[in-house]
Specification:
SDR_fam, 8 helices, NAD(P)-dependent dehydrogenase (Short-subunit alcohol dehydrogenase family), alpha/beta, 263 residues, seven-stranded parallel β-sheet, SDR_DHRS6-like, oxidoreductase, 43% helix, 14% strand, NAD(P)-bd_dom_sf
């Protein structure tokens, strides 16, 4: 059954920029209350504060927490707060949009640094494994209920390679595997879990990728729409997919790329 989102709650992990921020804005316009977790310096915190004020202008609650979303202590501290804020309603939508990892090559040239075990573990823990840990704790706390939707942000990098992207590519591949397993285990509870595969999207995390300008130019030329994916495109997809109580669309990698991967 198609339902209204107004009055429900959304948790965005990675809420202060890029796709996470766009999704939070879109859902706030739809009347969804926002819980945002981000990990920023002063500039990022100020940006999150401004975003929260803008969202509250739509008549919803918006609470942002500057904390490391990949930390077990953060989950321990925030889950009781989420239970209090949601007032027993639970969390309808969870968005995992954490983009923090190393861009070092596996085998650097003579004058280059190579990837270390610590950097590999950190990248996969933040960008992939934290999805599992958040979902576990939210479900155990009773915050994920029938009709809830969990989204993880992936990319074509989960199946493709390019210089200095190895650890992130591995994280995206692991993330998609986690989505399938969580979808299987949460299906009896009526909870859907999907990965959204955005096309090449201009975000702060993309700008850190070496050669991102060339990557963007090529994606724009190849995309049937002759433009890059925008964070707002992904936000609209989350809003659309979340309007049903059904969990029948689950365990998928859903392309939100304007047909970019077709070409």
């Amino acid at each position: 059954m198609i339902t209204r989102l107004e009055g429900s709650w959304c948790l965005v992990l990675g809420a202060s920029s890029g796709m996470g921020l766009a999704i939070a804005h879109e859902l706030a316009r739809e009347g969804v209350h926002i819980l945002g977790v981000h990990f920023d310096t002063t500039d990022g915190q100020e940006k999150a504060a401004v975003a929260g004020e803008e969202m509250r202008g739509h008549g919803v609650e918006a609470h942002f927490f500057n904390a490391n979303a990949a930390s077990a202590r953060t989950r321990e501290e925030l889950l009781p707060r989420f239970e209090e804020l949601t007032g027993g309603k639970g969390i309808r939508i969870v968005v995992h949009s954490l983009a923090f990892g190393t861009l070092l090559p596996y085998v650097g040239a003579a004058d280059e640094e190579s990837l270390t075990a610590r950097q590999m573990n950190m990248t996969l823990d933040v960008m992939a494994h934290s999805l599992v840990y958040w979902t576990q704790d939210l479900f155990t706390a009773g915050l994920l209920r029938e009709g809830a939707k969990v989204y993880a942000m992936t990319s074509a990098g989960g199946a493709r390679v390019m210089p200095s992207y190895g650890a992130v590519s591995a994280a995206k591949a692991a993330l998609e595997s986690h989505v399938r397993q969580l979808a299987l285990e949460l299906a009896p509870s009526g909870i859907a879990v999907n990965a959204l595969r955005a096309g090449v999207t201009p975000t702060p995390s993309m700008e850190r990728i070496p050669g991102s300008d060339r990557l963007a130019a090529r994606a724009r030329d190849l995309n049937p729409h002759r433009r890059l994916t925008r964070p707002e495109d992904v936000a609209e997809a989350v809003s659309l997919l979340s309007r049903t109580d059904s969990s029948w669309i689950t365990g998928n990698v859903i392309g939100v790329d304007g047909g970019e991967l077709l070409t």
